[in-house]
Every structure is written in structure tokens, then in C-alpha cells.
Write a structure and sequence with these properties.
The structure is a homodimer. With about 500 residues, chain A is α/β, with parallel strands linked by helices. Chain A contains 19 helices and 26 strands. Chain A is globular, with a radius of gyration of 23 Å.
Chain lengths: ~500, ~500
Amino acid sequence: MNDRIRYAPLLERIVSAEEASHHIQDGMVVGMSGFTRAGDAKEVLHELAKRAQSEPLKITLLTGASLGHDTDKVLAEAGVMARRLPFQVDTSLRRKINAGEIMFIDQHLGETVEQLRSGSLPPIDVAVLEVAAITEQGHLVPTTSVGNSVIFALQAKKIIVEINCKVPTAIEGYHDIYQTTDRPERFPMQIVHPQDRIGVTAIPIDPAKVVAIVETGMEDSPAKIEAPDEEIRQISRHLTDFLLEEVKRGNLGYSLLPLQAGIGAVANAVLVGLIDSPFHDLTMYSEVLQDSAFELIEAGKLLFASSCSITVSEKWYHRFMQNLDRYRDHIVLRPQEISNAGEIIRRMGVIGINTALEADIYGNVNSTHVHGTHMMNGIGGSGDFSRNAQLAIFVTKSLAKNGDISSIVPMVPHVDSNEHDVDLIVTEQGYADLRGLAPRERSPLIIERCAHPSYREALHEYVREANQRGGQTPHVLEKALAWHIAARETGSMRTAFKTS
Amino acid sequence: MNDRIRYAPLLERIVSAEEASHHIQDGMVVGMSGFTRAGDAKEVLHELAKRAQSEPLKITLLTGASLGHDTDKVLAEAGVMARRLPFQVDTSLRRKINAGEIMFIDQHLGETVEQLRSGSLPPIDVAVLEVAAITEQGHLVPTTSVGNSVIFALQAKKIIVEINCKVPTAIEGYHDIYQTTDRPERFPMQIVHPQDRIGVTAIPIDPAKVVAIVETGMEDSPAKIEAPDEEIRQISRHLTDFLLEEVKRGNLGYSLLPLQAGIGAVANAVLVGLIDSPFHDLTMYSEVLQDSAFELIEAGKLLFASSCSITVSEKWYHRFMQNLDRYRDHIVLRPQEISNAGEIIRRMGVIGINTALEADIYGNVNSTHVHGTHMMNGIGGSGDFSRNAQLAIFVTKSLAKNGDISSIVPMVPHVDSNEHDVDLIVTEQGYADLRGLAPRERSPLIIERCAHPSYREALHEYVREANQRGGQTPHVLEKALAWHIAARETGSMRTAFKTS
């Protein structure tokens, strides 16, 4: 362990996961590493589920984003989790959230740290952080994500370290650890290009706060990326066409602007689609790198990628770990305070590509709530990017549930990104460029370009009736949510207008 | 005129407003100075209304924000306006917008300039700018607002200047004119404190673009600030109580953080309320200064205010103009690209105080659309601030229309600031501190603290029924908009539940 724990006094803090877990007590606020399944602490929290069988134990759990290793599932099912933020993707946890048993605070991933700094959230009691090494100064070298680990380490009275011996120590140097200060004194983040480094390579802490170190050896849970189907490939083609149009109009060059793509199959496929495009010398300023980023680097298309995490398939995980020197000049990992900072996203004019659950005829997007009520995953970083992007692009297939659900609806019953934040909607049918358009101009465009043909006439009919009522954003309030009501009651949105 | 037009070659460009107006042709995009009735060009555009009687003349009009002198009314009624952005407050224009006769693009006031830079909006053909003077270099000294004049001057092929001889030339020096660059090369805005200056005092232009100069002499249309009633004073007291609590919790000091207050009686009264508070050495980083800012300066409470415009009553307008040297060290006026820049607002952690039209039981705010469909004014700068503020505060009276309308509703039918952006809702009933709360925790708090007692039971009843349906954000979709439907049909929201 001496090559991983280079600050000798900490060698004596090595304990079992079970022992380490006893620093976490009932009622505490725990901040854990982990962002989109990458770099999560993998063992200590699981011990809480065991302990909860014989002692009262409920905690508030904060992370960077989602976790692997069923940690959310295990903690939710054991009843350990009272509150959870800022993001999750687990089925069991989701069920308890929607049952009102676990309080879930859905947050922009770039804002949790702000709320911790300003006292809008209670402070972290214990941080549980996965690291690859501890430096000579006792500082912490993260693994495949940085997440919120910097603020967790700063605020926590106690830090529990999970030192992952499976991650090569050569990962040191990938991270650019910078943190802003508490207000009122705060300074510009001097990042102008994705490759700019403004920080150090390890998280500075007072080593005396490290109360326990646990040796671990599990890999990150691999990303589950389905192969793109024909509809996803169509979405990718439409998006490439739009970007080419922007080049023709003189709004972009062939290197575009730094790209961001949310997690998931569609965003991944869209990036893969750029391999065979005329674009070149691309950069990314994103919160997560999926397989597509590595494929673009290998294809010589992607010069540099700034991210908060690396969330890839098993194949790419191993290639990355075995070739850390190869990718070193192409990738930097940052805290989400920086990767998701509106300041930098706006400055660079990032092209943000995120997935919508559904969009309405005026361009409002629901990213989170099924039927407007039931939480899917959370808003994640989509808002951090779409609000500040030069081009805020939302992608979705026009249909879901074998056609029973239209992703283009009269009114979304929950708004995550509103009309001001949505520049382009892309489905397999085409794209609607909403920039500079009034709501009454957007509705026919979205219907014709994005809605599935089998829903178009019903949408047009809604617009006709709504326009007769007047307004900047015409609606027939009695019918605005009828499709969602029908879907909930009958399983199909079509019953809302077929029977009427 | 030699003291106002110090670049001699431009002296020969002085013409009548009528003559100047002929540089504006049918179909053009016109960018005009003016922000919340301050510093608007006052004569040239009115000539278009006359010309439109005898020639086809339709334009797109962009400004900083709202205008005085009935310019929007005159242009709307003359049929000259085809498109309007990013904000308006005029009754006649509003009627035509809601009838679908004029296309209105409602925008965050800080984003219009971004969209012009990136090609998301068509470029400006002609700029019409009110100035106090033209410098030796031919650069333009604005008057009581800066608005979007910098980008308009930069993009326009032709600039028409209205030189307002009523504004003392001593206003020179009040402005800090800085503009970012077009992407991809853009740099941090190096403003850390409201008083930091990073620019020059006049708008740099190529004087050859000035095709006409018109002498004018009208004052800005005065702000209409009603005296605060008891409910408004209650709102102000609740807000002060909350800020004092934040000081006690150690989240703020007695100098708070830079304050922003939207336009209108409530925001003005809230600031006036600080005169008799224990807070001191305050600063503002705002988009508009109302009478309250001057009263706070006079009371020795406000050290410095950064703004985009000065929109005050006749009394304060004259005091300001007659005492320009007195306020010189207390005020700076900036382009809205800077006054409304998320980068700076987030960095400083501004305390943003804006008015809601209505809020729902989960903290989503509608600032713009009556009944969810009909445009009131526009989102203005409220989103620029609330999205980036350390504390995003929305204020509203709990009732409107003699109690027929509740400002706290089950679901807002239009979302301008969503749950993520709203930290505090304040009505005359009290305040609801939503920070760190899940939706199910927010609803009882908002109902008990903010809703009028006469609507509370109906709201609780809605929540009970919604909670039975489950979800992160429970709703009864069939009833979610029933109050708005009732209000539209019967004039009163009460009929939605009294008769059920």
C-alpha cells in the first residue's frame, strides 16, 4: 500500500469496511463520491444496510450523480435512506421516492455545491470518497470521476477513504481540482478552452480528517449502452444535418463549439455519428464521457474532452485503464462545480445535446416526471447546459410504448427546460429550429417536423382550437393535459382524441 | 451642439426625425435604445407610424426592455410592428400580441445579445440610439440606460442617433461599456464587486455608420410607483425577517450580498423597507434602479449600485439630473449583457427579488402568462437573476381581483422559473423557505405560509387527493388546472371548488 498511501501516518488508518462504517451514525448527512456510476465508493455504504437490521439508521445521502453497484437499491430497500440528492437512476429507489417514502431533492448537478456553500443545504458530516492514491501531502487522488468530492471533503468533519487498488495509480494527473471560494469573495473561473487547467491534481484536505481507509478492488459498474436502432440513427443524421446548416449559415465552423452530450444511448449515438461527418478538430466540455468520446478520439476527430466522469462499457473501461498514458493529453476530469458551471458553458457557447422525456408544441421540455408526477431519474446536468448553451438541443424518439405515447404533446405537465432554453428539438422525424420564433410560430413547426405522423392531426386540431381562444401561448386548458390523463387511465394517449 | 457632438464631421448629419426615419425601410430589423422606460429613443420611431399611413412598412423591433412615450402603443396601433422582442409593458401592444397579430419573442433580457452574436436572431439593420453626447472619437455616450445599445451599434449597418439635449452632459462617466467577443474566443468578465469597472465610458463605433442625428429634448417617461399598501408592507417585513434569520444562521452578514430587485411597487417597497433595518453597507447588482435605490443611498444604507437603467419618478429624475456629481461614486450603468450576466450574478451570489404572477404548491412560478395563455409583460430579467442568485426570492400578494384569484395554485399553467430556481416565496401571509425540500415537503409549507386562508383548505384537499395518486410531485391532472379554467369562465377561482 505504500505506493498508494504516500502519506505514511495514514497507513495506520486502514480498517475494514464494516469498521469504517461506524463513523456514520443515525441522522447524519453523508457525501459520497460517484458520478454517473463512475468513481463511486463501493463498500462502506453497503455496511449500513447490514447495520440497519439491528439499529436505527437513517441518513441523508448526497453524491455527484448516480451510483453503480446497486448502492442506491441496497440502501433504499434497507430503509437507510431518508433523503437523497441530487440524482439517481435506480428502480427500487425510484419506487420509494414516488411512494413518498424517501425525500428526493432533484437538483441541477452544478448547483448542489452552491447550496452547500451558502448554507441552503445542511453541511456534510461524513465524506466517503473513492481514491486511487493519497499523495505525500495526504491529498486525495480521485478515480474515474470527481463529482462533488471536493466540497464533501472540505465540509466533512470526518473523511472515510475507499482506496481502489484496481485503478492504476497512473490515473494521477487526469484531474484538475479547482474550487471556488465561499461568497462574498469569489473570482472568475479562468477557463477559456476545454483543455485549460486551473487547479491541482489531488483534492487538498487536512489528512487528520481521514478517520478510516478501506481497501477495495471492484471496477465501476459498466455503462449499459444499447446499440442504436434505426430511429436513433435518424436522430443522429438530422442533428448532423442541422449542424452542417449552421456551418453554411456562418454560425459555426467545422470544429463546431465544445460539445456536451447527456448520458444515454441517443446522445452516445449522436456523437458516434460525427465520426463519418466532415467535422474535425472537435472538443467536448461535458459532464460525462461515454464510449463515443473514446471512439471519436480514436478516429482522430476529437482533440480534447473535459468532463466530470468517465462512464463507459467494460471494453472501453479496460482499454482506458490499460492505456492511461495514451489518453492523458486528451482528457481532463473536473469537479462538477466546474464541469457544470454556467459561467464556463456560456462563455464557450457549448452545444448541449440532452434527452427529453417529452416536449410540448411550444418547446417546453419535461425531462424527469412521467405523467407529470412520477420521477424518472432527475434533471441531472441537462439544465446546467441547456440554459447556458449556444445551442440547446433536445432529442427524443417521437413515440414511446409502441406508439401509445407521443413525445410531442399539447402541454407538458412538468417543465424542466422551458421555451427560453430550448433551441432545437430533434426526433427521428426531423428537427424543429425554434430560435427567434414566437410560440404561435413554433407549434406548427414542432408538429410537422418532430411529431409522429399518427399524432399530427390531433395536435393540429388542438392548436386550431387553442388559437381561437387567443393568447401569446394559446391553450385549451380543459384539454391541455387530456393526453396524459388518457395515458394514465387507458395506457394510451390515443384514447384522448380517438374517442372524442 | 458643439459640446454634445465633439466629433466635428458628424455635425453635418443633423436632420429632422422625419428625415432620419427614412433610413428605416419595410422589413428591416431595428435595434433601439431603451430599458424599463429609461434612455429610449423618443422621436424617430414615431415617424414610422405616420409613414405607415401611406406606405407598406413593417419592422422587427428589438430594444433593451420596455419603452416610454407610448412608442410601443403608437407602433402597434399603426401596424408597423411585425415582431417585437425581448420585453414590453404596453396595453395596446399586449392586445395585439395576444390576438396573434404581432409576434412577440419573450426573452431573458441577458440573452438577446447572445442570440444576436451567435446568429440565432437575424442581425440588426438600423440602430436608433438615444445619447447625451458624441465624444471626440465619435463614440456614443448613453443617457439613463445602456440596454442592448452596444450590440445594436456594433451590428447595425446604419446608426441613427437621437441626441437628448435635456440630459446634462455630466452624465458622461456613469457608464461602464464592456462587451464580450463572439465565440469561440471569449474571456471571463472580470467583475468581482458591483463597483468594479472593466470598460470605457462611451460606446465605441465607427462614426461613419452614423447616418443621421436628431436633436431631442424630452425627459424619460416617469416610473409609476404606487404607494405601498399594508399588504406590500407586510411582504417587505416578512422578507426582512427572513434575511435577519439568514444572518443569525451565519449564512449572510449584515451587508447581505448584492441585491437585485425587479421593477414594480412590491420590489421597490421591499428595498425601502431596508432603510429601517439593521442592515448596512449594502450594494446592488441589478438591472434597474427605482426610487428606492436613491432613498437607500440618501439614508446612507446603500454604498453602491450597478444597474442597466435608472427608472424613477419625476421627483427623483430631476434630483438625479441636478445632482449628477453627488451620485457619481455610487452608481454605474452597464450593458444588459453585463448587468444580467449569469456569470457575474452567480459569482457574487446576488439576492434576487422578483415578482411572481402566481406560484404553485411545489414552487414553480408563472411570471408572464395570465391563465397560462395571455402575455402580461414578459419574463424580463427575472430568470437571469433567479437562476443564478444565491437566494432567488419571489414575492406576490396572496390574492388578486378582490379575492377571486389566488396567487397560490395547484399547478401553474405556464412555468417561467421552475422548482429548481425558487428558494423563497413571500406573500403578505408569510414566507416559505423551500431550500433543500422535496416537493412533498414544499406543498404544506407553501399553503400554510403563503396562501390566503380562504384558499388553504381547498389547496390542502388537492394535496391530499394528489398524494394518494403518488409520485415525486403528486398531482390530480384532471383538476390541476381547474382553478384557471374556473377563473376564465366565471371570473373566480373559487367556483372551482365551492361548487364541487
